[in-house]
Design goal:
single chain, Quinone Oxidoreductase, Chain A, domain 1, Rossmann fold, seven-stranded mixed β-sheet, six-stranded parallel β-sheet, 9 helices, globular
Length: 334
């Protein structure tokens, strides 16, 4: 037997704990080519909110009454797959549970870097890290000398996107965050040139103009809404946006209007390009090689907010949506 979190009901607006249920599951016997993994850490991520809704999207919706899915890292405790041994550390997509039976093809063996915690493979060296790397370098086509704006700059993706821009030679890196403490972290710990508290200091566009008085060339968008509208206003000609997420509207019960200034896209010759990180898995080795090297050299820093226990995973997920985390939100299972 093992424990798992299932989706009890589809959230309307903001999720609540009542939308989730902690259940006991009987594990199926292993078949040839399968492994049993004891999960050590699991991830909660903004994209999961969309999977809780009905309807077609780029990933299938979660099914009611079924265990949720998401990134997890764990230890192989039983194997009928010759490519894995007991004790191997693997990354897979069967989170939200304490144990998982999966096909060997669904797991990736991790060789931990010295001095880097395993949980980093769910954050800075995992899907969020790849999202930041691909979004900045490939989707937004960053080049040395660009001025960069990152929304959600204290989060798992935004914090790394800004640091990569700095290391790659940005002329200026500015960010937005949701509290004075996060703003201080973004400037003092992550090395951004400036940052602002979008909740407290007035319209985003005014704050962005103050932080980037000469305009911006690249916008890494984790938030959408007012932030995207502000970036369009402050862009120089030929600016590029990597549209990664729109967390500001994920929990709205009714559709919201888009940016009111999209007409500026024409005159400024802007590019707004959305992307899904799963389409860029081939870039994972490059990201781990470059970002992992920066980590070991102490040139990149990262934060984690760790919640203990599977039973608290719904709280961690809801807290992440509300911006209660600094860096990557992680749930430690064992």
């Amino acid at each position: 037997m093992t424990r798992a979190i299932t989706l009890r009901s589809r959230p309307v607006g903001w999720p609540t704990k009542d939308d989730f249920e902690l259940v006991e599951l009987e594990l199926p016997p292993l078949r040839e080519g399968q492994i049993l993994v004891r999960n050590l850490y699991m991830s909660v991520d903004p994209y999961m909110r969309g999977r809780m809704n009905e309807g077609e999207s780029y990933v299938p919706p979660f099914e009611l009454g079924e265990p949720l899915r998401g990134g997890a890292i764990g230890e192989v405790v039983e194997t009928l797959a010759p490519e894995f041994r007991i004790g191997d550390i693997v990354l897979h997509d069967y989170g939200w549970r304490e144990h998982a039976v999966l096909d060997a093809s669904e797991a990736r063996r991790i060789t931990p870097l010295p001095g880097v915690p395993l949980s980093a493979y769910l954050g800075v060296l995992g899907m969020p890290g790849l999202t930041a790397y691909v979004g900045l370098l490939d989707i937004a086509a960053f080049k040395k000398g660009d001025a960069v704006f990152v929304s959600g700059a204290a989060g798992a993706v935004g914090s790394l996107a800004g640091q990569i821009a700095r290391l790659k030679g940005a002329s200026r890196v500015v960010g937005s965050a949701g509290s004075p403490a996060k703003v201080a972290h973004v400037i003092e710990k992550l090395g951004f040139d400036d940052a602002f508290d979008y909740k407290a200091d007035g319209p985003v566009v005014e704050q962005l103009r103050r932080a980037a008085p000469d305009g911006i060339d690249v916008y890494f968008d984790n938030v959408g809404g007012e932030h995207l509208e502000a970036a369009i206003d402050v862009f120089r000609r030929y600016g590029r946006t990597a549209v990664c997420g729109a967390i500001s509207v994920y929990n709205e019960a009714e559709p919201v209007c888009g940016p009111r200034n999209l007409f500026l896209v024409i005159g400024k010759r802007l590019t707004l390009r959305g992307f899904i990180v799963g389409d860029h898995a081939d870039r994972m080795p490059d990201m781990i090689d470059e970002v992992g090297g920066w980590l070991q050299e102490g040139r990149i820093t990262f934060e984690e907010t760790v919640v203990e226990g599977l039973e608290n995973a719904p709280d961690a997920f809801i807290g992440m949506l509300r911006g209660e985390n600094l860096g990557k939100m992680i749930v430690r299972l064992a």
